[in-house]
């Protein structure tokens, strides 16, 4: 067992968990900022539907011949503004995902570089303040996979053939899940059915149980991070 290798791994793990902790907060904050935007999008969809269901020419508003065109123009502008803001939030989520992926990748690369000097006892040994290397690597792997699946289409060649627990696979279908960015890319101001269903579909992407597991992981390594 190489003590320098173990110390280096502990240092890398500590840095990665600290990054995970800060990035999880950013991720949660960004998603919280998206919620009122999705509500606004749903409200705009209702306004679009109401405008489509009424014949202004059959109402007292017929005296304003260009009113419908002006209302549609304002709705298009408002819808585009909300979608632009949401796409901006997606860029923030992508930055979080990339940061977590890069940090975890660096830890696994360091581990692979030192596998010859780390025996089984070293990898599985726990202490009062530090979980085992195998546990911490698995937890990081779980966290990285969660954020990757939430925001897919990233390169993950560093995971090929590598897993710390039996049955762990990374099928390519995971990278084709219809997630938030893909949903936003399908929305158009002239497609009411998509706009109306967007808030509900967006909410279906939430993964509170996965976020709770990451929070639990951070609690497990809290003493290790501070040591």
TrEMBL record:
Cite the InterPro entries for this sequence.
CA109-like
* Source species taxonomy: Eukaryota, Metazoa, Chordata, Craniata, Vertebrata
Q: Which GO terms describe its cellular component?
A: cytoplasm; nucleus
Under which name does UniProt file this protein?
Answer: AFG2 interacting ribosome maturation factor
One short Pfam family name for this protein? CA109-like
């Amino acid at each position: 067992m190489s003590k320098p290798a173990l110390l280096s791994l502990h240092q890398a793990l500590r840095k990665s968990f600290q990054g995970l902790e800060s990035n999880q907060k950013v991720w949660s904050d960004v998603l919280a900022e998206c919620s009122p935007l999705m509500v606004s999008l749903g409200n705009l969809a209702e306004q679009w539907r109401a405008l489509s269901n009424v014949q202004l020419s059959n109402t007292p508003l017929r005296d304003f011949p260009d009113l419908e065109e002006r209302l549609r123009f304002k709705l298009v502008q408002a819808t585009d503004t909300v979608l632009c803001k949401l796409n901006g939030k997606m860029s923030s989520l992508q930055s979080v995902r990339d940061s977590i992926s890069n940090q975890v990748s660096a830890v696994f690369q360091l581990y692979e570089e030192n596998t010859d000097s780390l025996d089984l006892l070293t990898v599985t040994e726990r202490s009062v303040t530090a979980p085992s290397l195998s546990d911490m690597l698995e937890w990081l792997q779980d966290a990285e996979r969660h954020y990757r699946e939430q925001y897919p289409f990233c390169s993950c060649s560093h995971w090929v053939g590598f897993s710390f627990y039996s049955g762990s696979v990374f099928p390519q279908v995971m990278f084709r899940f219809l997630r938030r960015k893909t949903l936003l890319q399908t929305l158009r101001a002239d497609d009411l059915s998509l706009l109306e269903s967007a808030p509900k579909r967006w909410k279906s992407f939430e993964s509170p149980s996965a976020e709770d597991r990451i929070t639990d992981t951070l609690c497990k390594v809290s003493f290790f991070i501070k040591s």
